[in-house]
Amino acid sequence: MDAADTVELSDSAYAIFEFFFRSQLHMRKKSLSLIVESGEPFEELFHEIFTEFSTVYPEVYDLLISQFQSPEEIYRMIREGEGVIPSKTYQARWIEQDSPHVDGRAADIEKAGKWLVFLPPDQVDDIWRQIRDRTWEGTLGISAKVSTAKPDPDARDDRKVIYVYTADWEDEADVMRVREELRRIGITDRIGYKRNIETFKGEYSAKGKKVTFYSA
């Protein structure tokens, strides 16, 4: 691995670990957010998964240790809200929550789509918690994710965004069911729904250009 590859991998090391960690929890039907917010220690589970990670991704593991000195430091960060609370997450640009009832990759196929919820930073933690919990309970969409406190050089303003995914953009009844659930949470302003098809094509909103498929 040359120096450029090492720098690039170093920048992505925590994101790779977090994805692995969440995937392992998903397989165990466990929610990181619920674990952390319960206040109960989960050090044994953390180290079990971290050890497995070191076997699967030894180079990334070494980079993580060089950045954070020890697994205990990463565990401490997570317990304090890293990867759980948007305003306390600085290592990754997104926090994701999949429904335990679907495949963890279900939100990444062309058939899926998402409602786009833009919020000021001081509102995002509370709204995210409600969306996250309903996603885990299976009463909202198949997945959701939220932008975090980590600076995003591509952001147009300081607002945060939550994506709430549904499995099939053609299933209008389900798409609108999720929209009604979002209203119950308090998201009453008109929001847009974007199909993954447009996202995969790299199509984004611009002046005079509409990329949302539904609006409600």
Write up what this structure looks like.
Belongs to the UPF0696 family. This is DUF1917 domain-containing protein. InterPro entries: Bles03, TIF_eIF4e-like. There is one protein chain. By secondary structure, this protein is α+β, with helices and mostly antiparallel strands. The chain folds into two domains: 3-84, no CATH class; 94-215, RNA Cap, Translation Initiation Factor Eif4e (2-Layer Sandwich). Helices cover 47% and strands 14% of the residues. It is built from eight helices and six strands; from the N terminus they run αααααββαββαβαβ. Strands 1-3-4-2-5-6 form a six-stranded antiparallel sheet. The longest helix has 25 residues, at 3-27. It is globular.
Short synopsis of the structure:
With 216 residues, this protein is α+β, with helices and mostly antiparallel strands. It has helices at 3-27, 32-38, 43-56, 58-68, 71-79, 121-137, 172-185, 196-200, and strands at residues 94-98, 113-119, 143-147, 160-166, 192-195, 214-215. It has eight helices and six strands; from the N terminus they run H-H-H-H-H-E-E-H-E-E-H-E-H-E.
The CATH topology of the largest domain turns out to be: RNA Cap, Translation Initiation Factor Eif4e
The number of distinct β-strands equals: 6
Q: Gap between N and C termini, in Å?
A: 49 Å
Taking pLDDT < 50 over at least 5 consecutive residues as the criterion, the unreliable ranges are none
Q: Over all CA atoms, what is the radius of gyration? A: 18 Å
User: Largest sheet, if any?
Assistant: 6 strands, antiparallel
Average pLDDT over all residues: 89
Counting DSSP H or I runs of 4 or more residues, the number of helices is 8
Oligomer: single chain
Helix content: 40-55%
The total number of structural domains is 2
**CATH homologous superfamily of the largest domain?**
RNA Cap, Translation Initiation Factor Eif4e
Q: Indicate the CATH architecture of the largest domain.
A: 2-Layer Sandwich
- CATH class category label of the largest domain: Alpha Beta
Outline type: globular
H/E element sequence: HHHHHEEHEEHEHE
Helix/strand-derived class?
alpha+beta
Task: Please give the order of strands in the largest beta sheet.
Answer: 1-3-4-2-5-6
How much strand? 5-15%
